[in-house]
Design goal:
Layout (H helix, E strand, L loop, with lengths): L4 E5 L20 E2 L2 E2 H9 L4 E6 L4 H6 L6 E5 L6 H6 L9 E5 L2 E2 L2 H8 L5 E6 L8 E5 L2 E6 L9 E9 L2 H8 L10 H8 L6 E4 L4 E2 L3 H15 L2 E2 L4 E2 L4 E2 L4 E2 L4 E2 L4 E2 L4 E2 L4 E2 L4 E3 L2 E2 L4 E2 L4 E3 L2 E2 L4 E2 L4 E2 L10 E4 L2 E4 L8 E2 L4 E2 L4 E2 L4 E2 L4 E2 L4 E2 L11
Amino acid sequence: MGKLQAVILAAGRGERLEPLTLTKSKVMIPVANKPFIQWVYDSVNFAEEVLIVIRKEQKDVKEYFSKNKKIRFVYQKKALGTADAIKQCEKYIKDKFMVINGDCLISEKDIKKLSKSKKITVSGFAVEDIHNYGEVVGKKRKLIELREKPINSKGNLANAGLYLFDKSIFSAIRKTKISKRKEYEITDSINILVRERKIDILKLSDWKTITYPWDLLEINKFILDNTGSQISKKAEIRSGAVIEHPVAIGDNAIIGPNCYIRKYSSIGNNCKVGSAVEIKNSIIMDNSFVSHLSYVGDSIVGSNCNIAAGTIFANLRLDDKTVKMKIKNEKTDSRRRKLGGIVGDNVKFGVNVTVMPGKKIWPNLLIPPGIMIKEDVEKQPVMQ
């Protein structure tokens, strides 16, 4: 057996994460002050070679890993699904290889356990409600089939998007027919392969995946709980700044004076947080400025933003119901009681703006002073 390779599928567009993905790749959104794909890469770094499947236009991913000689970039020309993405790697694959979705966070311990399997293996994670996931159906840790979002199933094992394959998967991919979504699904390829040979099931101890913007906050919390605070030695923490741990604070960030950084907040490189500011359970990306007398709660602020004085990100509905967010033109229940706003890159606020719970602001906009944002802002508002 040759040495193990790993494939990270990173070509997804992440439409449900808009406006964050309008200016950066889904896998490059920072969580705990690292691009998400860095956390994924770290978990498979023990492999001899790591292949990352991207689209040609994803220059941010390629630039980020430009000095890493262990990585080979493989291009998917069209968005034709996971099986098509894996197929692009065929000429580089030597023997056994792992595949992991670039939007999944799985413990290195579980991934190493999978890598030592002697058979083709799919992974699953026990969930409360299987109906929002693909299902792994098996018996005695042997795969029977993979089902896509089953309606009536009583099972609870979700397909975690982590696999161990050998070269036989490529012949199954060639037999795979295009799905209703106009894609070639790796789950269909695996269902073809399971008719020919036995496939093992590995149950994971941890699994986090990014589908919606609020998932970023969940994963940010999960990582900080596991790593503890990550405060750069190059950050300047000024007098009167109160910090609840764990948090992440990046290089050259200036915090305070007299501000309150509550736990599970990640503040990126070159950010500034002014006086009398409270930041709670939020992600503030690189080069953004949160001015004095502002509150940012359970929110995500993109890169190069200026949050002017007196800006309030409301994160709780008056009726105490869960916050809904518009995702691909449909209201989606976050199932979170507290959820603030999502701000794209390069947004500049005027003073005294209020962003109501679950509202989104598109990149490169100027937000007029003194307004209340009750609906998503996708176009430049009229300046007063």
